[in-house]
Specification:
The complex is a heterodimer of chains A (about 210) and B (about 450). Chain A has about 210 residues and is mainly alpha-helical. Among the domains of chain A are: about 1-70; about 135-205, no CATH class. Chain A is built from six helices and no strands. In chain A, α5 (about 140-155) crosses α6 (about 165-200). Chain A is extended. The N and C termini of chain A lie close together (about 10 Å). In chain B, β9, α5 and β10 form a beta-alpha-beta unit. Chain B has about 450 residues and is of the alpha/beta class. Helices cover about 45% and strands about 15% of the residues of chain B. Classes of the chains: A mainly alpha (about 210), B alpha/beta (about 450). Chains A and B meet through α2, α4 and α6 of A and α3, α5, α6, β11 and α7 of B.
């Protein structure tokens, strides 16, 4: 029962979704809309489990005084402090989420700059990754390096100083060899998705059921 | 006395003559309200019509206003392949478009009265074609089975409107039970499904099937062994997408296989999650893997945990784990976006052996650059079959290969036809493309 019911739900739901793709009728669309509206409801309940998991893991670390346990306070205090400031803290004492409020101040002056910093690290990481990728260690790596130089210089205005051939060659690389490789990968991905979906719908793949799948 | 009796009618005639002549002059300036009035004429109706038209005649005489010409007939058709929520509306342009800036299209439910019932559903600039699909505006949706009326207003630059006649739609919107634009998808999908099921069956019958070795999958055992030897944990990131993403499901399937091996070696495992639903499933998958490996006691409930739903906060958390815990092996399998390089580069700096796999084409170069092994696209989906070696799973991979063989056949055919077309000056490839290529459908 523990295994059959989820498998039946997945099978019926999966076949229903496949069939409804070909039926534009309003009843078919209504079924699809209702079905997809359930997902956020399930997600809302799962979020409670997620917050519970985070609390459990970090409270264990604090209780056991494991390595770097102090950082766990940096997780737990904002985790509960920010919703408290937004929902429970009185509006008269700068509560709520809208500016001006303590929540808004913390969000704009701590979370947003930290996130921007994380994203901006990407620029430096791209440089180091490019350096590693473009080392001409072999014939293939040399071809990659040459192609990358042509494409990169061809994409910027300075490329035309060397002649029209450079941007045109760069475009040719992007439009033909590069696009062909991308399409080949995407075709494979498409078939992979199709096969995986069929395996799940017809119960061949049951690992996603966890303990109930066995 | 006799002279007086004759004089009265004579006076009346004299008085009536000018009155009749004025009445005749006014009649010539009247605008008919309805053409039907000219066909059914009775003495009473003439009197009534004269009464009704008199004010119009007076207004026109006082202040003549040329205005804008208005549009002609409105045609309303039910749109094919929809849910009964769209109508194709077109109208005839006015004979004289001078001074018209745009056309405002109004719609109301047939039978409703009053100006408030009209909704402005579209504004068509004067230089555009006088047609549009009604029903796209979510504020004014079209309901299936409802009869609508339309009217078009010619609009001046000053936003002055001149309304044409009201037109009742001849059709009501209805949904179709089959989308004719998706027939080719149905045929191709049916064919590919048949092939996959055919190989399922073949594998179940015990037919031996060869699978090309994939370096990234073969390296999984080696990577787990390395972590065990070093006594360091293994980090497994099942992507940042949600459970509805097939890459996430494929990743969770691989997680089950990997966790089983990890349980056998009793190596610590860390599985941070971005989505709460993915977290609950990952937790179940790992728990079951430890159970299957015969080591339920070794399962640590804190090994699978939820981190945050925020993309870069998640990256910060995982990068922090890498730098503090120094895992010996990192797995990044699933769907990734901009964080792929941030994760993989940090892992590379921490000295871990890294195995990545994603179907995100744009992130593959980053993983290939920074990871030791990368599962490219479909290899992520095939990994489960490689690790499990179950006949049906292998059958599914062979089914995919058969599908790809068909596509390769079409590409070869197209190449041959293109060469023939160049040599012979024919257009066979265009014809084949028209037959095969899927049109863009709603």
């Amino acid at each position: 029962m523990k295994r059959t019911v989820p498998l039946m739900i997945v099978m019926v739901g999966g076949i229903l979704m496949m069939v409804q793709y070909f039926i534009p009728h309003q009843y078919s669309q209504a079924v699809f809309t209702n079905y997809t509206q359930w997902a956020p409801i399930v997600g809302a309940f799962a979020l409670i489990l997620g917050v519970g998991s985070l609390t459990r893991v970090h409270s264990h670390k604090i209780r056991r005084k494991t390595k770097n346990w102090q950082y766990s306070w940096a997780v737990l205090i904002p985790l509960y402090g920010m919703p408290f400031l937004a929902i429970i803290w009185p509006q008269s004492l700068a509560g709520g989420m809208d500016s001006p409020s303590i929540f808004h101040f913390f969000f704009m002056h701590i979370q947003v700059p930290i996130q921007s910093t994380m994203f901006s690290l990407l620029a430096f990481y791209i440089a180091s990754a490019a350096f590693r990728a473009f080392r001409a260690k072999s014939a293939l790596a040399t071809i990659l390096l040459l192609a990358a130089v042509i494409v990169m210089i061809g994409q910027v205005p300075i490329g035309e100083i060397f002649g029209r051939w450079l941007p045109e060659t760069g475009l040719w690389i992007l439009r033909y060899p590069n696009l062909a490789a991308k399409r080949a990968i995407m075709l494979g991905v498409g078939f992979g998705i199709l096969a995986t979906n069929l395996k799940i719908i017809f119960g061949v793949e049951r690992n996603w059921l966890g303990g109930a799948g066995k | 006395m006799r002279k007086n009796w004759i004089g009265i009618p004579a006076l009346m005639i004299l008085l009536l003559l000018p009155a009749l002549s004025v009445a005749q002059g006014v009649d010539e300036n009247l605008t008919p309200v309805d053409d039907n009035l000219s066909t059914v004429v009775t003495e009473d109706s003439i009197a009534a019509t004269l009464t009704e038209l008199q004010p119009v005649a007076e207004e026109q005489l006082e202040e003549p206003d040329p205005g804008l010409d208005v549009s002609g007939a409105i045609t309303v058709l039910d749109k094919d392949n929809d849910a009964g929520d769209q109508l194709l509306v077109s109208f005839e342009l006015p004979a004289d478009t001078e001074g018209i800036y745009a056309y405002n299209v109004y719609r109301r439910i047939a039978g409703e009265e009053g100006e408030d019932a009209w909704n402005l559903v579209e504004v068509i600039p004067a230089d555009k074609l006088p047609e549009f699909i009604d029903g796209y505006d979510p504020d004014y949706p079209i309901s299936p089975g409802v009869l609508y009326e339309y009217r078009i207003a010619s609009v001046t630059v000053d936003d002055e409107e001149f309304f044409g006649s009201i037109c009742k739609a001849e059709v009501v919107p209805e949904g179709e039970i089959y989308h004719t634009g998706k027939t080719r998808v149905l045929i191709a999908g049916g064919l590919f499904m048949f092939l996959i099921f055919y190989y399922f069956g073949k594998a179940q019958k015990g037919t031996k099937m060869y699978l090309r070795p994939i370096a990234g999958i073969q390296a999984i055992d080696e990577a787990i062994g390395r972590a065990t030897e070093m006594g360091k944990p293994i980090l497994y990131v099942p992507g940042l997408s949600y459970i509805e993403d097939v890459a996430t499901i494929a990743s969770l399937t691989i997680l089950g296989r990997v966790a089983k091996k990890i349980a056998q070696y009793q190596t610590p495992l860390m599985v941070p999650n971005r989505d709460p639903i993915v977290y609950t499933i990952a937790d179940e998958v790992v728990k079951q893997a430890y159970l299957e490996a015969g080591r339920p006691d070794a399962y640590d409930p804190d090994s699978v945990f939820f981190l945050t739903t925020s993309q870069f906060a998640f990256v910060a958390g995982v990068n922090g784990l890498m730098m503090r815990e120094k895992p010996a092996t990192n797995f990044y399998l699933g769907m990734f976006w901009a964080e792929s390089l941030l994760l993989a580069e940090t892992g590379s700096l921490s000295g871990a052996i890294q195995i990545a796999g994603t179907d995100a084409v744009t992130q593959l170069p980053f993983f290939i650059t920074t990871c030791d092994y990368t599962l490219i696209g479909e290899e992520l989906y095939a990994a489960s079959a490689y690790l499990g070696r179950e006949p049906k799973q292998i059958g599914a991979v062979k089914g995919q290969d058969a599908c790809k063989a068909i596509i390769m056949g079409f590409i070869t055919l197209a190449l041959a036809l293109a060469i023939i077309d160049i040599a012979a000056g024919t257009h066979t490839l265009d014809w084949v493309r028209q037959v095969i290529t899927m049109p863009i459908v709603d």
